[in-house]
Write a structure and sequence with these properties.
By secondary structure, the protein is an alpha+beta fold. It is built from three helices and seven strands; from the N terminus they run H-E-E-H-E-E-E-E-E-H. The strands form two sheets. It has a five-stranded antiparallel sheet. A hairpin with a 2-residue loop joins strand 1 and strand 2 (54-62). The chain is rod-shaped and about 90 Å long.
Amino acid sequence: MIAITSVFSKKSLTVSVLAASALALTACASLAPYGPQMAARGQGYSEQQIESNRFRVTYSGVGAVGPVADLALYRAAELATQNGYDWFEVTQRWIDGRPDSAGGVRPNVSIGASSGRYGGWSTSGVGVGVGLNLNGPSPTSTTLEVVMGRGSKPDSPEAYSARGVLEAIGHRL
């Protein structure tokens, strides 16, 4: 009985160490602080002016799609206020990322059985395996094409008050 307890103690210690390692690995790849994209595959915002009041804004990051989309909206709001506009409307939106792009430790369990014959002996066995998916957060990006305007915001679910977006999202940065 003592031997069985020590085997389980070693196994639980091993699982604990693996879980702690996985958490440390996933913490390494996280959404960088808000700012401009400095490298081709780096995190941050970039924009392209299409017309005097039309921009294409992209925010590239890692992890869940929602926070990255919020930062794209935030950058669009900054551009609107910097250029003297009161509101912007998203005319097109592209989101690139997996639904589970936040990553993390996702355990899986598998069960297997086998039987066979070797010489005059018959054998059978059952096994249970526990694995950990140690993938960290995946790259994700949101691109918005926006038209900016002055005065009253249009009555559209895709139209945003530039100052309202800055206030709503800015406190999270």
